[in-house]
Design goal:
Structural class: alpha+beta
CATH topology of the domain at 37-128: Immunoglobulin-like
Distance between the termini: 248 Å
CATH architecture of the domain at 37-128: Sandwich
Strand content: 25-35%
CATH superfamily of the domain at 37-128: Immunoglobulins
Number of strands: 8
Number of helices: 3
Order of helices and strands: HEEEEEEEEHH
CATH class of the domain at 37-128: Mainly Beta
Helix content: 25-40%
Length: about 230
């Protein structure tokens, strides 16, 4: 059976189309299984009060990658966290604990060194965190203003500790009238002068003796005078 030129051309055309289609399919599948920097995405998140940076890896080849997080402060970069991630065609999310600061820029480095994939690049653009951090600072509870302590009032001056000399009883009492009774001799007792301790008896005895002596003298005088008259 002979093959005509027309049939040959037709066969070649069909083979070319099939080859091109196979190349396209292989190219697309190869791209899907390639590990590249475009497979990685970073975002800031929170787990309660705990800050996290979540890496999403859509690498269908499942190649392991090492992630390093840098905090950027002007021209200075500080490494704050690192972890290994492994993606999938559906996309795998891996949270990395980072106590990130609000309104701060972080640079994410992706390093792959496994099998036929080797690169060290950073996710573009850098990650800028939200305006509020996960853990909000508690504002201090306002306290009621304290009442001013009243100043002590000026008290009246204290009285002098030195007692004012008082008028003694002897000076305030009126002087007693002079008494005709003889004052007790020195050394006598301080007992009150009563009839039992006064000199009234002695004085009366002396007066009686004087009366007797005077009476005797009068008697003898009259007797002598009478004797003279008789003689």
């Amino acid at each position: 059976m002979s093959i005509t030129h027309r049939g040959a051309r037709r066969s070649v055309r069909i083979l070319g189309v099939a080859s091109a289609s196979a190349a396209i399919v292989l190219g697309v599948s190869g791209s899907a299984l390639a590990c590249q920097i475009g497979d990685f995405k970073a975002e800031a998140g929170c787990a309660g009060d705990k800050g996290q940076i979540v890496i999403t890896d859509t690498d269908g080849s499942g190649t392991k990658a090492h992630i390093t997080v840098f905090e950027k402060n002007d021209a200075v970069e500080t490494k704050v966290a690192e972890a290994d991630v492994q993606g999938s065609a559906q996309g795998t999310k891996t949270p990395i604990d980072v106590d990130w600061k609000a309104k701060t820029t972080y640079s994410i480095e992706v390093k792959v060194d496994s099998g036929r994939f080797h690169f060290d690049q950073r996710i573009n653009p850098d990650l800028t965190t939200p305006a509020e951090a996960c853990k909000k600072e508690e504002s201090p509870t306002p306290t009621a203003p304290s009442k001013p302590t009243p100043k002590p009032s000026k008290s009246a001056p204290a009285e002098s500790a030195t007692p004012t000399p008082s008028v003694s009883a002897s000076s305030s009492a009126p002087a007693s009238a002079p008494s005709n009774a003889p004052s007790p001799a020195a050394g006598d007792s301080n007992l009150a002068e009563t009839g039992a301790n006064s000199n009234t008896g002695l004085i009366a005895g002396i007066a009686g003796a004087l009366v007797v002596v005077g009476g005797g003298a009068v008697y003898f005088g009259m007797r002598r005078r009478g004797a003279r008259g008789n003689g």
